[in-house]
Design goal:
This protein is an alpha/beta fold. The chain has 15 helices and 19 strands. The model has no long low-confidence stretch (mean pLDDT 98).
Length: 464
């Protein structure tokens, strides 16, 4: 009578504090340059070394430029943070996939593609989108800098058990609808705080029919509805994806791992604190219009009228659409777009790039739109070039850049100018997220691709 979450959680309890949190063992700890310097400094202040450096994977992603990565980083703070990561990893014996390394990339892209991320693990990182790794049937969640230090020192973490939610999605998706639309639809229905306090399991025939990369997109944005994390039970799709990956088990170890992985599912009589059922046929291509990911509508829809918003939420709604320079009740389709960003830990994998390339092949971008395609890792970039996707993008007027978090967040050189509209495949649309006073529409790679061609928010179904 256990859920998938409970099976993994219970296996990792080192000690249960009476009427308190659990001491949880952590299998894998991912770190990057932004949330690790203070943790390393805290260890050194106490005269401690990293307890289990072999269980840490480090990469540079948030602050890195996505052009001319062989040159010194221009932005001083970015350069200092990347240099600190390099020094700290060398001092503590932590493997670093820094700039120029064949495995460098966004932390939540390289973990799965290298086979570091595996079913049944507990995984943490000082980054909220660690929930991505839950697509493999792992308990994966973001932690704060003091917790990063705690894991470095002990390989354990104090955690209170969250409530459990299951979201069942059944049926066939309509044409033009992809996994990003599924998660934007869910968040628009339950709000950006609708899963606060919960760990979510995604289930149902629609989820089982998705590729691993599509599942990662869904789990990635669990955090955007307030959840602690999201997970999907591993199955044949999961095992096929992992088999042969650089750091996945091999030979007899693989056979042994598979036996354990096949036990990772929610029992038929498992209890959840909340269940939500969704018919896949009701989902259309989605887009956000406001300044949190819950402010989303179908691409043919319109913004809510002010009187449709709960009275207590009206001031923030009006502030949000004022920032976006949109009017209550207006349609979103046809809005002009200045930039298109295809990338981030949500949508920068090979499947995303192939999806965009197959749509834009033989087409030209709108002349007044700037389009950035930023692969999630060095491996994705090289694969894209091997498959000739770079030529397709180039012919369409798109720029294929080098791997990094890029315009997902205004923490590097790839910022959207003030007042400009960007249709983005990233995960957050907060005020100033992509640069001071930049305006963000979140959408799927397909909806972003069609906007790049038309120069405005468009319905990809009109083109399929």
């Amino acid at each position: 009578m256990k859920s998938l979450f409970e099976k993994v959680w219970q296996k990792h309890i080192v000690q249960q504090i009476p009427d308190g949190p659990s001491v949880l063992y952590i299998d894998r700890h991912f770190i990057h340059e932004v949330t690790s310097p203070q943790a390393f400094a805290g260890l050194e202040k106490r005269g401690l070394k990293v307890f289990r450096p072999k269980q840490i994977v480090a990469t540079a992603d948030h602050n890195v430029p996505t052009l001319d990565q062989h040159l010194p980083i221009k932005e001083e703070l970015s350069r200092l943070q990347v240099e600190a990561l390099t020094k700290n990893c060398a001092n503590h014996g932590v493997e670093l996939y820094g700039l120029g390394h064949p495995y460098q990339g966004i932390v939540h892209v390289i973990g799965p593609e290298l086979g570091v991320t595996q079913p049944g693990m507990t995984i943490v990182c000082g980054d909220s989108h660690t929930s991505t790794h839950g697509a493999f049937g792992a308990i994966a969640f973001g932690i704060g800098t003091s917790e990063v230090e705690m894991v470095m020192a002990t390989q354990c973490l104090l955690q209170s058990k969250p409530k459990l939610m299951r979201i069942n999605i059944e049926g066939e998706l309509n044409k033009g609808v992809v996994s990003k639309d599924i998660i934007l639809y869910i968040i628009s229905k339950i709000s950006a705080s609708g899963a606060t306090g919960y760990f979510v399991e995604y289930a149902g025939s629609t989820i089982r029919g998705l590729s691993m990369e599509a599942r990662m997109t869904i789990c990635n944005m669990s955090i955007e509805m307030g959840a602690r994390g999201g997970m999907i039970a591993p199955d044949e799709t999961t095992y096929a994806y992992l088999k042969g990956k650089a750091m996945a088990p091999k030979g007899e170890e693989w056979d042994k791992a598979l036996v354990e992985w096949k036990k990772l599912y929610s029992d038929t009589d498992a209890k959840f604190d909340r269940e939500i059922n969704i018919d896949a046929a009701t989902i259309e291509p989605m887009i956000t219009y406001g300044t949190n990911p819950g402010m989303g509508v179908g691409v043919t829809g319109h913004l809510p009228e002010t009187n449709e918003i709960i009275e207590s939420e009206r001031p923030s709604y009006l502030k949000s659409i004022q920032y976006m320079n949109l009017g209550a009740g207006t349609k979103i389709k046809g809005r002009k777009v200045d930039y298109v960003f295809i990338g981030s830990c949500t949508n920068s994998r090979m499947e995303d790039l192939r999806m965009v390339a197959s749509f834009v092949k033989g087409k030209q971008k709108a002349k007044d739109v700037e389009v950035w395609i930023v692969p999630g890792s060095r491996q994705v970039e090289l694969q894209a070039r091997e498959e000739g996707l770079d030529k397709i993008f180039e012919a369409a007027g798109f720029q294929l850049r080098q791997p990094g978090c890029s315009a997902c967040l205004g923490m590097n050189e790839d910022k959207i100018p003030a007042g400009k509209y960007c249709i983005s495949t990233s995960n957050r649309n907060f005020e100033g997220r992509q640069g001071p006073n930049a305006r963000t529409f979140l959408a799927s790679p397909l909806t972003a691709a069609v906007a790049a061609i038309t120069g405005e928010v468009s319905d990809v179904r009109d083109w399929l």
